[in-house]
Amino acid sequence: APHFRVFLPGGPQRRRGASKRAAEMEPSAREVGETRLLQPARPSGPLDPSHTAFRYCVLFCSCMLTFGSYFCFDIPSTIKKQLEEVYITPWAPATGMFQVDFLYSLYYSLYAWTNALVGSLFGGIIVDRYGTHFATMLFCCLYCTGQVIFALGASLSGLGTEAQYIVMVLGRFIFGMGGGAITLVQNTISAQYFRHDRMALAMGFTLTASRIGSVINLNSTEKLVKATSIPVALWVGAALCAFGASFGLMYIALDRRYRQHCADSGQDLAAVAVKKVSLRDIGRLPAQLWILACIISLYYIGIFAFIAIAKDFFEAKWNDDSAVRGGASFRSSIVYLMSMIFTVFVGSFVDWFGNRARIMFATCALSVPVFLLFEFTALDPIFGMLLLGVTYMFAASSMWPCIPLVVPMDLVGTANGVATMVQMVGIALANMLVGVLQDAGPGDYPGTSVKSYRYCMLFFVACGVAASLLSLVMNCVDARSGGALNRRKDQPAPPIAASVSTSSTATPEPPCCGGGSAVAPGENAVGAGR
Asked: Contact, 341 vs 434, CB < 8 A?
C-alpha cells in the first residue's frame, strides 16, 4: 500500500530542535518531580488519617457503639405493666419483700450490679491493659449475648413464667457486663482524640447518638408490643444491638488505618507500650475522682432510677388527666429527647465557658425542685421533665469530661471504670430501694391499684441534696489544687507533673487534636502524662 508522509513547514529541523530542548529540560523536570514527591500529599478524603475530618469519623463509629444497648436498657420501663402481668404476677408472692415491684426492679438492679462489679471496674482495667480494640469486641459481644438471652427467655413459653423470668434476669445480668462497660471505651476514645480540644463536644455527640436509641425505645416499644408481642419487641432490640456493634468493627479498621499512617510517615508506634494496669493502680487515683464519682452516682440516681418508674408514676398520679395519661411515654422520654438534640451545643458551650465544677453544682441543685414539683403539686409533669432535661444536658457535659482532667492519662480507662462502678452500685441499690419504698407506700393512687410513689420522690430529693453538697466540696478541693475544673478555655493551664508509667515514649497526636501530647488512638496508658 502506498505510504504518505506529510511534512509541515520546518518539520524535521523543528522536531530535532524540540527534542534537543526537551533533553535539556529533563533534569529540571526530574527535579520538579522529586520536589513534588517530597511534598506531603493532600488528604484523599475524610477516611484519610491526615484529613481534618478523620477523627470525627472515628467519633461517629464510637457514638454508634451504644445505639442498640441504650435502646434495650430502658425496654423494661416502657412495658413495665406487660412484663409484670405476663412474667411476674402469676407466681410472685403477695406479701413479704419479694413482691411484684421488687421483682420488676431486678431487671434494672441486676444490670446495675453486674455493670458495677464486673463490667465497669474490670472493664476499665481491660481498656487500659489490652487497649480499646479488644475491649470493643468483648463488650459488644457481651451486651448482644445478654439481649439475645433476654429475648429468648421471653420467647420460651413452654418453660413456665417463673423459669422465663429467671432466664430473662440472667440475660439482663450478662447484658450489664457489656452494656455499661462499652461506655468506657467511648470515653477513652474521646479522651484520645479530643482531650486537648472539644472534649465536652465529643462526649456530647456520644450521648446524643446513644440517646437516639433511648428515645426511639420510649416512644415506640409499647406500640410495637401492642401490635405484635413482647418477644418480638425484645428481638428487635437484639437486632439493634448487633447493628450498633457493627460500628465497633468500623472503628477498629479506622484506628488501624491511623496507626499504619503513622508508621508510613516515620512515626514509630512500635515503641508505644500499653501499661500493665492492676487493681493496685486504683490507689493512685486522686481524692477528686472519688468525690466526683459520688456526685455522679447520686445525681444519676435521680435520672435512671426515676425514668425506670416515670411512665407508671405519671399514669397513676395523673390518672384523671387524659392528656398526661395518654402522653406518659412521651413525657418520660423528654430528658433523653432533650439530651439527644441539645447536648452537642451544650457541650460546645461548656468547652468554651469552662467552670465545670460550678456547673456541676448548679445541675445538682436544680434537680431537687423537680421531684418536689412531682410530689407536692398537680402541675403537668412535662414542666418538671423539661427542667430535669436541662440539668441532665449540663451534667453530662460537665461531670464526665472532668475525669481526664483529674487523673493521669494512663489511668483514664480505670478512672472511668471506677466512676461508673460507683455510679452503678448507687443505681443498683436505688432501684432495689425504690421497689421496696413503693411496696411500702402510703396507699394507692385514686382510681388505680398502683401504690404511692411518695417515699420514692422524697428519696430522689435527698439524693439531689447530697449531690449538691458534694459539689460544693468538689469546688473547694478544685480551688485548692489549681482550679483545673473551673478553668476557662482561654486560661493557661498550670504545669502538671507527668505520671509514672512503664513506657517512656510519647506518642503522636491524632490529626487536628489541638496540640500537646496525647496517647495514640487504639492504645491507652502510654508514658505521656496528663
From this structure: no
Looking at residue 269, what DSSP letter applies? Answer: -
3-class state of residue 418 by DSSP: helix
Sequence-ordered list of residues with C-beta below 8 angstroms from that of 186, at least 6 positions apart, any chain: 62, 63, 65, 66, 206
Residue carrying the nine cell digits 513506657: 503
Query: φ, ψ for residue 457 (rounded to 5)?
Result: -65, -40
| DSSP assignment of 334-345 | HHHHHHHHHHHH
Q: What secondary structure letter does DSSP report for 506?
A: -
What's the CA gap between 460 and 131, in Å, rounded? 37
Query: For residue 416, which of 241, 183, 224 has the smallest C-alpha distance?
Result: 183
- If DSSP codes are grouped into helix, strand and coil, which group holds residue 444? strand
| pLDDT confidence of residue 490 | 61
Question: CA 392 to CA 400: how far, in whole Å?
Answer: 12
Cell matching residue 407: 487523673
DSSP state letters, 90-125: TT--SSSSS-HHHHHHHHHHHHHHHIIIIIIHHHHH
Asked whether the beta carbons of 465 and 367 are under 8 A apart, the reply is no
In the chain, % helix, strand, coil (3-state, to 5) comes to 75, 0, 25
Cα 511 from Cα 1, distance rounded (Å):
65
> Cell 486560661 identifies what position?
491
Instruction: Supply the Cα-derived Rg of the chain in whole angstroms.
Output: 28
- Phi and psi torsions of 235, nearest 5°: -70, -35
User: Cβ contacts of residue 160 below 8 Å, gap of 6+?
Assistant: none
Could you report the per-residue pLDDT of 255-292, keeping only the tens digit for each?
888 777 777 776 544 333 344 455 677 777 888 899 99
CA distance 98 to 108: 15
- 177 class by beta-carbon count within 10 Å (0-12 exposed, 13-18 middle, 19+ buried): buried
| Confidence band, pLDDT 50/70/90 cuts, at residue 41 | low
Q: Quick one: CA torsion of 38, 43, 47, 51, rounded to 10 degrees? A: 100
What's the per-residue H, E or C state across 272-304? CCCCCCCHHHHHHCCHHHHHHHHHHHHHHHHHH
Cell of 312: 407508671
CA 189 to centroid of chain Cα atoms: 11
Residue predicted with more confidence, 74 or 318? 318
Give me the long-range contacts of 353-356 (CB less than 8 A, separation at least 24). 353/488, 353/489, 354/486, 354/487, 354/488, 354/489, 354/491, 355/486, 355/488, 356/398, 356/399, 356/401, 356/402, 356/405, 356/485, 356/486
Here the cell at position 322 is 387524659
**450-477 per-position pLDDT tens digit:** 888 999 999 999 999 999 999 999 999 8
330-353 tens-digit pLDDT:
999 899 888 888 877 887 888 888
Residues 6+ positions from 396 with CB-CB distance below 8 Å: 203, 204, 207, 339, 343, 347
